[in-house]
Amino acid sequence: MTRFTFAFFALFAVQGFCFSAFAGSYAPSHPDPVEEPWRWRAFPETRGIGVRCIAEGKDGAIWVGADTGVRRYSEGEWRVYTQKDGPGAGPIHRIRVAPDSAVYVTTQEGVWRFHRWEWTRQQEGVPASDPFQGQGAPRLQTRDGTVWIGGEGCLTALRGGTRKVYSLTHVPLFGPLLDLIEAQDGSLYLASREEGLFRLDLTEARYKTWENLHAACSSSDGPLWFLTQDSAVVRQEAAGWTRYGVGEGMMDSPAQVVEGPDGVCVCGSHRGVAATGRWRGKRWEIQRHPGLARSLCCACLAPDGSVWFGSEGAGKGEPGGLLRFNREWRHFTDEEVGGIGDVAALASTPDGRVWAGGSRGLHVFDPLRLAGARSGQASTSSGQGGRAWRPVAQIEELTGPVTALHVTPDGDLWVGTRSAGALRFDGRTWAIHNTRTGLPSNGVSCIATVDSSLSVVLDHNRGILRQDGQGWVRTMDADLSAETEGLFQDRQGAVWLNGVSREGQWKAIRYQPDRDPPETTLTLKPDRVAPSGNAAWEWIGKDPHHSTPQEELQYSHRLNGGEWSPFASQRGYLFLSIPQGTHTFEVRARDRDFNVDPTPAVHRFVVEPSLWSTSWWIWMGAFLILGMVVLVKQIIQRDRQLSEFVSVVSHDMKTPLTAILVYIDNLLDGIGGGTLTEKQARTLRRARDNGERLTRMINDLLDLSRMEAGKLRLHRTSFPLTESVREVVEGLQPVAGEKGIDLTLTEEADVYVRADRDRIEQVLTNLMGNALKFTPQGGRVQVEVRQIDRTARVGVSDTGPGIHPNQQEAIFQRFHQVKKEDMGIGLGLAISKKLVELHRGRVWVQSQVGKGSKFFFTLPVEKRGKG
Length: 867
What we know:
Elements: H1 3-15, E1 17-18, E2 24-25, E3 40-43, E4 51-56, E5 62-66, E6 69-74, E7 77-81, E8 92-97, E9 103-107, E10 110-115, E11 118-124, E12 139-141, E13 147-150, E14 154-159, E15 162-167, E16 177-182, E17 188-192, E18 196-200, E19 207-211, E20 213-218, E21 224-228, E22 233-237, E23 240-244, E24 253-260, E25 263-270, E26 273-279, E27 284-288, E28 296-301, E29 307-311, E30 322-325, E31 329-332, H2 334-337, E32 343-348, E33 354-358, E34 361-365, H3 367-374, H4 383-388, E35 389-391, E36 402-407, E37 413-417, E38 422-425, E39 430-433, E40 444-450, E41 453-458, E42 464-467, E43 472-475, H5 478-481, E44 484-489, E45 495-500, E46 506-511, E47 519-524, E48 528-529, E49 535-542, E50 554-559, E51 572-575, E52 581-590, E53 601-607, H6 615-668, H7 678-709, E54 716-720, H8 721-739, E55 742-747, E56 752-756, H9 757-774, E57 780-788, E58 791-798, H10 828-838, E59 843-847, E60 853-860
């Protein structure tokens, strides 16, 4: 015997009393399975089709004959047989299964045989009378000897000479039953013409209910322990059931049974006083704790081996609080704990902290703080308990009533509350789960771990949910989880659901989770996908034991071995823009017991390559590109040759033209001798003007040729741009005056640029000359110079005819003319644009037809030092 056990029993002997009466046997009672709603399952697919008869095939498939034809149900799937592949849509009179597994169906048109997935007509000319008209109630004798008789909204069972009639309004099933069968798994199938097909699970392999009991704990030595509604403790083991009441040494009001470090403990009340008890293998030893509280409601085992008990709260003359046993008893009053009120739940985390949830929130006990208080490291004005216990007040949701505490195998603490949802503490941070994050209700009555995943029982029959790491999933049948207040999983893997019926009767339901995973099948699986990469997939899952309805199966999929998608109920998915090539798609099903198909449905498919990625297209494209390269190269070479030709011709033309102009000037100046008549002088002046215009054209051609060849040299100097603009404006004033055009200049302070002054003045002359040329008599031309940030901008606006939008880009191209009758060859704007771009500027136009034009160009402003 350990020192702990010896000390515990010694205290019982000194402070308490020992009951050593012999225990009594116990005979548990079970409700009638027919009256348990969660054992019934309706098939909504059959409602309204006029079900007449049913049968089970050798393969376990259920055959349904109805007013609308015959249907087959197998592994969660319904198959409707039509006129093309079966007896048709007329009424089905009977369905029978032969020893060779063939299914025979009788209709008004004859007898049909279904064998090896083929229908054949066996007989014609069967009388058209309906055997179901006026027939008696269906009868069935099951393998256990029970005779079942269907009636109008009821079911009668004859067992061992006794007769019991069940009302089926709770199913709900109100119409007459037309057929009954017993399936291979022991369940009953019932056919109703109005309500359709129903299944009644009468087996106890997965479900079994005990009346007037609540499962409490599963001890390490094997037995299961229960609390009874009449205030006793029951022990179940292989040898049978044993009851411990007051007459057998138990306290008169046990509240909880837990396993301590050296055996099973019980807490509760005895004769109106808080009490604890210890199982000594053959008897119970009970100890009362006067001056504590009326009752102890909950208990837990801490990592250091101590056992903690929580009281129902302080009362008149009773300090309430918590009780701890660790070689000696230690009482922490409600005041020392921090005003916890009624203690509803206790739990201890691996770090040694003990957590208590009560009507006034969550409180925590830190053993290190208690050790510090004992060593005198801080004031003890509020007592050692006050130093060690403190409320968890930093989270508002934890200041209200706490209903459940649970520590997961990973060491996380989960807290259930009455109205704030569930909270998880991982040792560092709190996470809140409520209706805003996926819980259907904020009321939590119990939290437990089932098969390594967390389960939460919600208040007000909202069901049981499990967490899969990505969200909350409703699990177990809705009727099964109704009225459930608590659950735990025993050491054999069974899940126990403790509930209270509306009439106040206790019940404990043992649920054996299904261990067989579902199977997954792809129903739509493309082999080849168009180059767009858009592909749709569909699938279905099958639960081998029908424990999970088809609509509650969930699925997860992935592509090319990537991450699995979160489980969801969708039975299809559309992929978009899958890249070309070979891919692998996988999908797997999961049932509500969290069994996952270990062999997912797998399908390999190919996304066809795009037209331009095929080999012949690539070769054709390569030849086209090669041809284009050769063509462009030839064009560039011819363009270069043309530019060189223009340059040579222009240069050769300029030399004699210059000489001609010199001769004309000499004649006009009278150097050649003789006096010219007015007509001769006018003719020479016209020849000189045309020669000068031709010279300008040749100069433009030479400039353009040099720029395209990259041979134009710019002589950059620093100068005030405003001064150059002013000089050009003044030089063109006579031209403006001749046409009666108002030529004005708006300028800011001197804006300095570093550029080729002659070339910039060439641009200015070109833009202003065009404006004067296209502005009608009496019009207006405005020139402005501005500095915008680090850029100088020159604008020339006129009141001319304007430029159509579709020509505003083309006017800067070589040889483009707005009007074919315009004088010139269309190089001025092209040269201006290239000159400005060589100075890292840009040129653009803004114009509306009939409202004139505005030409702008910019140049970088020169950075000039201060002073």
